Amino acid sequence: MRDIDAFHSKKRRCALKLAALTFVRPGELCRAEWAEFELDAAIWRIPAGKMKMKRSHIVPLAMQTLEVLRELRTLTGQWRWLFPSRYNPEKSMQTVVLNTALRRLGYGPEVITAHGFRAMAATLLSEQGWQSEVIERQLAHVDQNQVRAAYQRSELLPERRRMMQAWADYLDMRCARAILGK
User: Fold this and answer.
1) 12-22, pLDDT tens digit by residue?
2) Residue 9 burial (10 A CB sphere; 0-12, 13-18, 19+)
3) Of 11, 118, 137, 160, which residue is the catalytic one?
4) Number of structural domains, the chain?
5) What is the extent of the structural domain holding 156?
6) Which of the following is catalytic: 70, 151, 174, 177?
7) How much is the pTM?
8) Are 139 and 118 in contact (CB under 8 A)?
9) What's the CATH number where 10 sits?
10) pLDDT tens digits for 115-144?
11) At what angle do helices 116-127 and 157-180 cross, to 10 degrees?
12) Is residue 175 a contact partner of residue 20, using CB atoms and an 8 Å limit?
């Protein structure tokens, strides 16, 4: 996060921060539209057509995520996309841009990929004691147990909102420690 904070491109810095903070799939992030965000309610509603499993998904937004979105809005708010293509702003940025930005920061694919933010978050949140059901719901994974999936339809938003804020706070803390050399 310290290295991302120092990245020279504001738009790509925001993209990498949002990838880490929300741990959505890279394609979902790159194709995000401003109309999907309710900043006052601190949620992002990803339509089913953009999701891997073709089910709509709600992403609770931490305070830090809202800060990044407010910064990004000054850069791209006049466009449909959060991350319009550099070559054609009528199209969204390609997902390869996220991995290219990580490589420019010196992180090879054996260290982290844009999709790897998902695994990193799931692993660390699990180690911190968050319930797997809450983590899996945040990752937009479908329960493989068909009976449980049929009856458990809750979005678990209150728990996910707490988890996403705790995750953002954790990333801030790790960044501060890295800056201080601890």
Assistant:
1) 999 999 999 99
2) middle
3) 118
4) 1
5) 2-180
6) 151
7) 0.91
8) yes
9) 1.10.443.10
10) 999 999 999 999 999 999 999 999 998 755
11) 100
12) no
